[in-house]
Every structure is written in C-alpha cells, then in structure tokens.
Amino acid sequence: MMTRTRLRVGGLITIVAAAALAACGGGGGGTPTPVTPPGTPTPTIAPTTQATTAALSPSATTPINFGGISENGVNILNSASMTMPAVSVATTAQITLEAPVPSGVATPSAMSVHLKKPSTLGVPTTPIAYFAVTVNPTVTITQSPAFTINFTTAQTGNCYIIVFDTSNPTQGWNGLLGPQPCSSSVSFPAVPINPPYTLNSSSEYIFAIVATSGTIETPTPSPSPSSSPGAAATLPPVTGSTFGGYAPWDVATAFNFPVQSGYNGAGETVAIIGDETPSPGDLQGYQNDWSLPGNPAGNVTVKNVSGVTPGGSDPSGLGEATLDVETVMGLAPGANIVFYNTQGDLSNSAFLLAEQQVKTDNPNVFSLSFGGCESYPVSQATPAPDSPVFAAMNANGMAVTASSGDQGDNCFTGQTSPQFTFGVNYPASDPSVIGVGGNETIPTTSSLTAPVAWNDTAFSGSQGATGGGVSVAYAIPSFQAGVSGMFSTTQRNVPDVAMPAEGVLIQLNGKMQEFGGTSWAAPQTAALMAELDEYCNGRPTNAVAELYKAYSQSAGKDFIAITSGNNAYGAESVTYKANANGGYNNTTGLGLLKGMSIAQTMCPSGTWTGGVGGATRPMALASNYGAARPTQLPYVRRFTDSQDRGPVAAGTQTNVLLVLRNTPTAGSDQQKIIDDLTAHGFTVKQTFADHSMIQVSAPASAIASYFNTEIHQVDGGKYGMLYSNASPIVLPASIAPYVSTVFADNLPARIPLSYRIR
Q: How much is the average pLDDT of 575-582?
C-alpha cells in the first residue's frame, strides 16, 4: 500500500516525501488491520503534513529534517531528512513533505525506471519515499542531495534514489544513487554531479527512494578495463546523472572503445570540416563537464580554408562543428584535432578547397558530417569531383568517415525544389570513404546498442532516419563484392557501418544541449579509427576495406547486427530495411562497431594486417581527355524566383573553381588552362601541387562571356547574399579537353547532418 502526505511552505525550494507500507522489493497484498489488546494505549498518529523553512547557502550544505508522517491513520515513517548541497546563489527554501506520488508524475515502476536512460529496468519496483525540489530563481548544484529515511517497519531489498524532472517528463525516472541495503533505516551520501546540474526556476525535481530485487544502473565509478592498458589513461566514469542524454563514458563503455584499454588516440590527428568555429569556452566547458583526462580542449587548432567566400552566420553550423569536435575530444582525448573552417561557405568549391588542404596536411583520420546527393539530377551518374581527393587520402592510409544522412533513403539536392529526393548522400557513398549510418538510440526508450535502424518520426520536430541505399555513381567496390545482404550486386552499397545517432549531450553556448543525427555517428567512428591507428602502430592500406576484413575474419562477431527497422522517409514505401537474421543491410551496413574486438582482429600482432598505407599507390579514378569543342556541363543549380536578385554588377569580382581531369599530362594541361584564362581577364588565386584544381577570379562580365552564362545574385537567407550562374556553364573548346567541371557559385551544396533536440 502506497500513501502520500503533502506539506508546502512558501516558494523557493519544495521538498516532497512519500512512503509505502509494502516491503522494499516485496510482493504480496495489503497489510492486515492490527488487533489492539484491551487496555493498550492508542499510539500517537504522526501528522500528515509538516512545514519548515531553510536558508540554502553557496558555501555549505543545509540539513532539512522531518519527523514521522502517516497516511490513513497509520504511521509510515518515523523520520526523514535530506541534506541539500551548496547552491550557486544563497536562497531561502520553502519545504513541503507529502506521502503520495506528486500530482501529474508517473509512479516509478518496472517500465518507467531507466538504466541511465538507455532501457527500462524490467523488474518489480516499489516506491518508498519521494523528495521533490522546486526553485525560484534558477540555481546550480555540483553535488546530489544526501538522504536518510527511518521506517516504522523494516524494509527489504536494494534501495536506490531515482530522479524525475517534471519539465522533461519524457525522460522518465532515472537512476542517481545506490544501491544501499534496505532495512529499518537507509542512508545515501551525496556524490558529485558532473556536469553541474541546473535546477530551473519553477520546475519540480523529484527524488524518489525505491526498492527492487534487480539492479538500477547509477552513475558510479566502473571497474578498470580488463585489457592491458597502453600508456594513456582511460576515460573517467560519469560521476553524476546525465539527466537526459549520453556522455562519452556511455559510448566508450557500451562499445568497448580502445580508450578504455589505454589507447586514447595519443599521437594521432583527426581533421574535421565545418563552417563555424567552435567556441574555446564551450570546448573547455565540455572537458570540465566530463572530467576528461589530459587537456583535449588544448589539442584543438583551427585553420581557415584559403579561397572560400565568407558567408553569413550559421547557427546550425556552429552546433555541427561543436558536436563533431567535442565528440572526438570526448572519445579520443589524447588525439590532436584540426578544425578546417570554411567561414560560412557550404558550396562545392569550399568543400573541395578544404578537402584539398586536408589531403596536403595528411592527418590520420578525417571526419565529415555534411552531405548532399552524390549526383543531381540523380540520373547524372558521374563520380563527384571530390573522388580523386578521397582516393588519394585513402591511398595514404587516411581513414575518412562521413555521415550517411538524416533523411533516410533521401538525399539533399542543393536545390530549393525539390530539396530532397530518393538517393544516397555524398561523400558517404564514395568507395574511399567509410559511410556511417545510425541506430535507434532515443535516450528514454532505447539503448546505445539497440539493434534497430534509426527512424524517428518525432526527431527535432520532424523525421530523422539513417541514410542508406545504392549509389548511382559508383560501381560496387571489391571489398563489398560477395557480402550477403547487399541490395545491389553491381553498385556501391551505403552505408558501411553504424553508430548511435540520437541523444548526445554537448556543451554549446555555455550550456549542455542534446543533439542527434548521423553527424554524431561519423565523429564517433573517427575517434575509434584514431585509437585503432594508435593500437595498430600505423595506418591501414585501405581503412574501408579493413572493416569488411574484420567482419569476415570475425564472422560478424566484431559488430552488433541491426536486425529490425527501415529508413523509409516521409511517404516513401520501404525500400531498404534491416535483416532479421543479421548481416549487412542498406540502412546500417555491417552494424555497430565493437572497438577492442575490431582492434584485436585487425591487428593481432599490434600492426595492421593490411600493412601500413603509403603514398606509393597511384591516385585512383584517372580520366580521359575530353573533346576539343564547346562542352556544356550537365546541370545548373536551381533557386526560386524570390531568391533571384538578378545579374550582379558587371565589374563584380567573382570566384570560379575549375576541377581538372586526372590525365597523365595534368601539369602541362594546367598551364594551358592558366594561359587561356589569363588571356581572357582572369586572375589565378590558387593552384595545387597535384594539378587537381585551379581557383581564379574575374569580373562577372568576363565569367559570363568566357563560360557563356550569366552570374546572378542570390538571396541565401542566413548565409547572406550569394552568387550563382543562372544557366549551364559551357566550357570553351580551348580548355574542354582538360577540365572536368567548373563551380561558379557559392550556394550551399551540402547540409550539416545534425540537429538540436533540446
């Protein structure tokens, strides 16, 4: 029998306590009515309501004591106390004590208590007492309250403290403290809360004491890893509740990342591209939030990409950049991180220039969380101009990871209409890139290792689903040939692997925020690849192929198979779905990565089984010369009439990027192109040692004349005023044999594949 009494005194802090006569963890029916012998004094019935006022201090803890309480004429508690920790600002607490579960709050039960939010407890749970806290104004605490309960009847089982935030009811009840053996009295000491927890004004935070015969996971230190550690320290455990999202420790332990065995990416470098620079204060705050070892925030450097056209402020880009950098910081805290800032420019040119710079710098790992259709229209089944860059990176042993997309079986067109269409995202579809999808990891209903393809119809106010499908631009690579479960036996299948996609906590704009998307999955994989390079003492010959080799050699045991779900987007019918029997599928690839298992399979003797990558392999995707005649390029970017501001002024200097064919005479070809361009009024801004691209600038009128087009001004909204050719570009016969494509716009071509959840 569960009972409730309520006491409220004034406004600042409200503390609620409730109790039940049922034994902790016990079953059975109600308590029989006691028989009182004649002449026995009637026991004094405790009050059902008590009131007190306490001043909370920023420099000391504050004990708050209650006497016994009763319900329906029966004493249920002899006494109870909670000790509030020091708060961020001095305040006066008004306190309420009552027995039943507070109004509007779900009673803790087997299906409502989560194991640090990944899953439900699944065993009987008996609520014993409730304490709730309401504040006005907002305060911050760095320790949990401490609790002591003295029962009128001895209790049995394991007792825990769980917590419920009424402002976020979908998060449910979550483990905080315990276990402690239940008896006539049970006490819970305070523990640090990391990151510091904010009690928002007017929101009620309810701490309940429950008992169960099972186990509730609480954020207490975990045992040391069983594997022999390397020179670096492991991630520390999360010592406080994550209150609604996942922390680095959660991922590292769930997937047994090598960091848990001492390989934290030390000596490795991870490159990341974005269009906004993460705040150093946020990075330092994130480091402090999770007590990361070393100084990973100090390992982050920023490089502005040369040749881009700075655009407007991009809040979504800031979230993306912060998510990517903090994810790698959190999971591989020993790695160096270089962030390449395109300064608000998300055009094809900006990505090509950034990728070229990454290729030259040659880091160990490169993570990309932006995507767009590999070819648009999709019928134009031609490799992207980035492909030679990624092929060269792969040949040099660089592992490149890319988000497979958040629109399921659709991809971003880069057009205003249609914005999305059936197809796969690039660069995840490139055979030199590890395409990374996601599994269903909603913190309140799922787990990090749930074998379900991510397809959340209520993700950030819309639908979010793991990208995947079949490439139209790339034939099936050798490492995918013969792998069962692939939708196509002739074309590249996407993605290669998967990692969690929803519910990570990051520090953004000075506070913890929850994010999701395959943009979280890609940097998780990048952090793992950096640790694999450290564990394996070098670089792989082909990072993508090595994952398929690990899958084959372990008979799939190095991966967690995704066995249910699909990635149908919007009203689309289901095309790609998981296999109930496991194996590869076109929503999540080979499955979720088991870190140390893969390391031991790939590098049984401490070195890559495929050998160390080097620059001796030739660049792939060599191309033929084109015809020496005026050649119209396949398509033109589309924008609406409301965006079109008409032709730019004739004298406006405008950038153009020419991508050269990968021919045996690329060096002399480049000079022929430069000579022709300069003769027509162009100025060369950049060339590259591999003769892959030429960036030039010219007045808009010169560009229009040379390429038989017209340059228009385009209203890019948050990206500012942009420019684009308003009709297809025509290559003059003089350079057509040597040029594969031309970009004369700075319209966004790829979008960040992450979203703020709350």
A: 94
